[in-house]
Amino acid sequence: MGKRAWYLLLVLPFAGTLFPQFYNRLQPALFGIPFFYWYQLTWVIVTSALLGIVVLATRRSDDV
Amino acid sequence: MSSGTVILVVLVLGVTVMGFLASRWGGTRLDSLDEWALGGRRFGTLVSWFLLGGDLYTAYTFIAVPALVYGLGAIGFFAVPYATIAYPIAFVVLSRFWGIAKRRGYVTAADFVRDRFGDRTLEIAVALTGVVAAMPYIALQLTGMEAVFASLGGAFAADSGFVSLAVAFVLLAAYTYTSGLRAPALIAFVKDTLIYVTVIAAIIVIPAKLGGWAHVFASSQRALAAKPGGGILLKPGQFFAYATWAFGSSLSLFIYPHSITSVLAAKSRGVIRRNAALLPVYSLLLGFLALLGFCALAAGYTTANNSAVVPMLLHQFFPPWFAGVAQAAIVIGALVPAAIMAIGSANLFASNIFNQFSPGRASGEAGAAKLLTIGFCVLALLIVLFIKPAFAIYFQLLGGAYMLQIFPAFVFGMWSRWFHPKALLAGWAAGMIAATVMALATGFKPNITVGFGSLSFTGFLALYALALNILVAAVLTPLLRGIRIDAGIDATSPGDYA
């Protein structure tokens, strides 16, 4: 394990976005935007955050 | 000239001047391929963020994604999961490739494949795939610009905008020749600023004027009910297609020559890693832009030309001067990726097809690449002149399916030398032929239905072609090793992958 285990976080965006049967619905809507849309937009932000965590957690001394 | 047209002309001329001045950026002579084509491999996090964003999120993307949502509804939103999962892939694959390329002086993906597998034919196959896939992509950028010029009227619209397009493109070829990758890198700052301003304004103003998002979606649902396969949610039969479009597209995004060119221009591995986390900001922008497709439905547009809906919205809801800013965003948004695509294709030709240079890099290589860039710009203009825009989109789809076929040699090759080079070549050929046959059979629709016994799957044909490619390579590898066919010499060493 060790540092490489952090990379497992990067599986989450695939699990979260590639099975539309689980998020293909209208409710709950956010500001009138159906769930289908704001759910996927949220994954953009979550993926960015997950990558940020992995970047910091697996940093090497030569990553300037 | 209207105030909008004046703003457009001033901004386009402004970036042209920037393009020529970019040759002085860094203060070095641009006579080596590293300096001309990769900006000296010195770009930091901020420059790379603008360059990669300007490169990957093209004007065409910003027109086509809302157009697809306008045409079909929910399924057009696949671009958002695509532009999300592309980044974990980029993070893992490209940070490794950057390190290998830096140590061994590579300029293209085909450089790596040549050294790794010691097979000249495989190198040429990988290089040609990149060039063939990039050409229709450049042409699509041009059709977007042409549409803007045609909408201006007067002298700009001469010959449906082609004359203006040719002028803009000759200027592009000239400053790309002079300044190399530094030109689009500098212009990308202007491009992305204009794009962010335009999209943020559009997203705040347009839905509000249309009565809010709830009303926009309710009207869209009624408008889409008449279209087969359309709706504000997916039909159950579309789930597999949606997922395979997103996944297949995300695998190919970063192996296009223009992506590789921009990535290798970064000064360190850390720049690539940080940008994988920072670039999704553009995906968020793309997602909101996609929702403008619903605004066009709610505004009651009934045009057969789906690509016109974003310009129509900007025209209807904004004053003329702001429409000029938005049009400049589209034109400059097309110039940046077109320049990088031409450079990336020229690198492949100069480095991997015309001549096989040593990692030391001959000086003639940069000269060849510079001339080839002009050649590719002219070729793209000819494509636009002689091929209808609709066909450019078909070739773009096929180009994406082709691009994916270098995945086993390039990406698997970075982690494993298990595959036999001739097996990879056979897999590549099988994938290319399968992609072509499937595209012809479906009339250049992205989906094809494949049956296994009682099960059938309707999904993205590029991914099926890749599956066949991998299968062929995996089956032939032990066979070729068994009959002792020469597996080539691996010129890389374990230290290159650290």
Write up this protein:
The complex is a heterodimer of chains A (64) and B (498). Chain A has one domain (2-57). Chain A is built from two helices and no strands. Chain A has helices at residues 12-17, 35-57. With 498 residues, chain B is an all-alpha fold. Chain B has a two-stranded antiparallel ribbon with strand order 1-2. Chain B has helices at residues 3-21, 33-38, 45-56, 59-72, 79-104, 109-117, 120-152, 162-179, 182-209, 213-224, 239-253, 257-264, 269-278, 280-298, 309-317, 320-354, 364-386, 389-403, 407-415, 421-441, 461-482; strands at residues 447-452, 455-460. In chain B, strand 1 (447-452) and strand 2 (455-460) form a beta hairpin. The model of chain B has no long low-confidence stretch (mean pLDDT 86). Chain B has one domain: Sodium/glucose cotransporter, CATH 1.20.1730.10. The chains are: A mainly alpha (64), B mainly alpha (498). The A-B interface holds A 7, 10, 13-14, 17-21, 24-26, 29, 31-34, 36-37, 40-41, 43-45, 47-48, 50-52, 54-55, 59-60, 62-64 and B 74, 77, 80-81, 83-85, 87-88, 91-92, 212-217, 232-234, 236, 238-239, 242-243, 246-247, 268-270, 273-274, 276-278, 280-281, 283-284, 287-288, 291.
